[in-house]
């Protein structure tokens, strides 16, 4: 196998992960900000590429490395292009883009676009390349100590996660995310569900697929690549199972969005030691990451009150720390014939605590570097051009205010003018003639029959429509009006949660069926409806009965009882 070609193909897989990040973030947030999220994930890569080629790459990978801390820019890509290592540049670029884009989700729905672009430039040019050089440049001080981070649990994901936490904390929560309980005076979290779990799930699968390139790009032989693919599959699988199980036990239902986060947390956790652990170690690392996701998401939201809409801090920050430290516990020598897969040994396999100590030192150093530099960066942006969008812009949605997209990313759902209805707005001499309505057949009060007019409205579950319609046919109801509606009814002791946070009463899809009757007795209709809907359980529905003053059939001018007797479609 030509591993030079695989190296570049894997870089392409990592680039494809950018679409996965975009979908996860868009799906976990509201539709009115989807276009803004698309632009952020596109432009942090585009702008990051420019500054990475100008400065960032040399700070990371320069052969002239000062004191194990930073590379000296040489601009070989411009001065000696033919001799430049093209593959290594592209490989490092796509990893840099990952570190930058992680932050987007934690700061979603309330960050000024210009400020986000400025942040992306700084992290791609300075913050990420310097700490990544400590790990992956052969002259870096952590590399010299024997620090192990094969594919970037700390160098990439922890950097992104810590930056996400700092950015979200400096930025502040979305409007309405936290409220003060009037009884206790404590700040409580309010769930703000994303608009499309489908997009979020698709993004998760794309990221998992791309992760085979993310973790496997640096493999040096086929057995090592196969081992990496195995651990990159086992860890997220174990993590997803652990997250699903824990949320099921805690909340009574398995949480979908949290389980998606769990799978991603398992991927982040295995990234540092993907080539240094066996199957058992990978499963344990993944399972612990799955539990950490639940604990960290809820702690950050409910206790620290830092608003992270997509769980970026828990997935990348917390699981990145765990995965890096786990190398010091679970690493073991692995060889397949003459092919070396791993040559380091962790605490649980007789290697002592030395590697664990080195891993902890590296995590601490990268954490402190990232936290301090990004705090200065975000504070500086906040003081100068401003970090946060205005309250008006946030409420309206950043698609409209930042990008001029009134229709958001879903143009088909925007009401548009119907040219066929323009006749309704014609005035003046060119207005078409309007036919005079026929004379009324009877007065408003139908004294001729003395029949009472009654409107009965039923609100229930959509799946009950066919049964209700059949019941109506059997008692002689020949006309109904059906409307799709949304609604809720708060039931005592019946609680929903979203990512561990009590969910405000959700608007659930219902149907509203309206029937106006005169000939059919009201009690007959009510008994028919109750006979279909009654189960004795919450959610059977509601029936409302109203007096109707009059009914007018537009076609004939008939009113009252007579207006309901025509058996044509739409009339009783």
Largest sheet: 4 strands, antiparallel
Broad shape: elongated
Strand order of the largest sheet: 8-11-7-12
Question: Helix coverage percent of residues?
Answer: 40-55%
Number of distinct beta strands:
12
| Percent of residues in beta strands | 5-15%
Supply Rg: 31 Å
Distance between the termini: 76 Å
Number of helices: 18
Unreliable stretches (pLDDT < 50, length at least 5) are: 415-431, 437-447, 568-572
Q: How much is the average pLDDT?
A: 89
Structural class: alpha+beta
N-to-C series of helices and strands: HHEEHHHHHEEHHHHHEEHHHEHEEEEHEH
Structural account:
The chain is built from 18 helices and twelve strands. It has about 575 residues and is of the alpha+beta class. Strands 8-11-7-12 form a four-stranded antiparallel β-sheet, with helices on one face. The chain has a two-stranded antiparallel sheet with strand order 1-2. A two-stranded antiparallel ribbon has the order 3-4. It is elongated. Residues about 415-430, about 435-445 and about 570 have low confidence and may be disordered.
């Amino acid at each position: 196998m030509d591993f030079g070609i695989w190296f570049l193909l894997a870089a392409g897989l990592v680039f494809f992960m950018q679409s996965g990040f975009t979908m996860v973030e868009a799906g976990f947030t509201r539709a009115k900000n989807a276009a803004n999220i698309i632009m952020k994930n596109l432009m942090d890569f585009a702008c990051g590429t420019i500054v990475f080629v100008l400065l960032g790459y040399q700070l990371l990978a320069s052969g002239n490395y000062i004191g194990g801390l930073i590379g000296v820019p040489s601009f070989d890509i411009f001065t000696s292009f033919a001799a430049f290592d093209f593959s290594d540049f592209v490989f490092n670029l796509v990893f840099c883009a990952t570190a930058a884009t992680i932050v987007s989700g934690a700061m979603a729905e309330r960050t000024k676009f210009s400020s986000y672009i400025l942040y992306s430039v700084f992290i791609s040019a300075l913050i990420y390349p310097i700490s990544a050089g400590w790990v992956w440049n052969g002259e870096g001080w952590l590399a010299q100590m024997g620090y192990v981070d094969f594919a970037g649990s700390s160098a990439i994901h922890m950097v992104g996660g810590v930056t996400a936490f700092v950015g979200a904390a400096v930025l502040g929560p979305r409007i309405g995310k936290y409220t003060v309980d009037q009884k206790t005076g404590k700040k409580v979290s309010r769930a703000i569900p994303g608009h499309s779990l489908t997009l979020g799930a698709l993004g998760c699968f794309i990221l998992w697929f791309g992760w085979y390139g993310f973790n496997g790009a640096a493999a040096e032989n086929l057995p090592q690549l196969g081992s990496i693919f195995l651990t990159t599959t086992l860890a997220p699988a174990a993590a997803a199972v652990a997250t699903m199980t824990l949320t099921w036990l805690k909340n009574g239902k398995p949480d979908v969005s949290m389980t998606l986060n769990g799978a991603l947390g398992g991927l982040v956790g295995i990234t540092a030691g993907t080539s240094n652990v066996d199957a058992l170690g990978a499963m344990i690392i993944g399972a612990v990451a799955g539990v950490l996701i639940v604990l960290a998401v809820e702690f950050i939201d409910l206790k620290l009150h830092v608003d992270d809409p997509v769980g970026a801090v828990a997935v990348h920050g917390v699981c990145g720390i765990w995965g890096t430290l786990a190398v010091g516990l679970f690493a073991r020598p692995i060889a397949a014939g003459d092919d070396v897969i791993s040559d380091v040994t962790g605490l649980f396999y007789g290697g002592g605590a030395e590697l664990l100590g080195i891993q902890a030192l590296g995590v601490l150093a990268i954490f402190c570097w990232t936290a301090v530099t990004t705090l200065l960066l975000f504070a500086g942006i906040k003081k100068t051009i401003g970090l946060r969008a205005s309250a008006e812009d946030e409420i309206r949605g950043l698609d409209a205010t930042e990008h001029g997209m009134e229709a958001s990313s879903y143009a088909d759902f925007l009401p548009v003018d119907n040219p066929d209805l323009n006749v309704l707005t014609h005035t003046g001499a060119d207005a078409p003639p309007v036919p005079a309505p026929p004379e009324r057949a009877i007065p408003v009060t139908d004294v001729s029959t003395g029949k009472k007019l009654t409107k009965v409205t039923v609100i229930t579950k959509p799946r009950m429509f066919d049964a209700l319609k059949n019941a109506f046919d059997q008692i002689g109801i020949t006309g109904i009006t059906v409307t799709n509606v949304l609604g809720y009814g708060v039931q005592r002791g019946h609680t929903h949660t979203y990512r561990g946070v009590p969910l405000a009463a959700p608007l659930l899809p219902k149907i509203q069926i309206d029937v106006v009757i005169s000939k059919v007795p009201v009690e007959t209709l009510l008994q028919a409806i109750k006979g279909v809907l009654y189960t004795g359980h919450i959610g059977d529905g509601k029936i409302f009965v109203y007096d109707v003053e009059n009914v007018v059939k537009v076609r004939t001018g008939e009113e009252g009882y007579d207006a309901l007797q025509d058996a044509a479609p739409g009339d009783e």
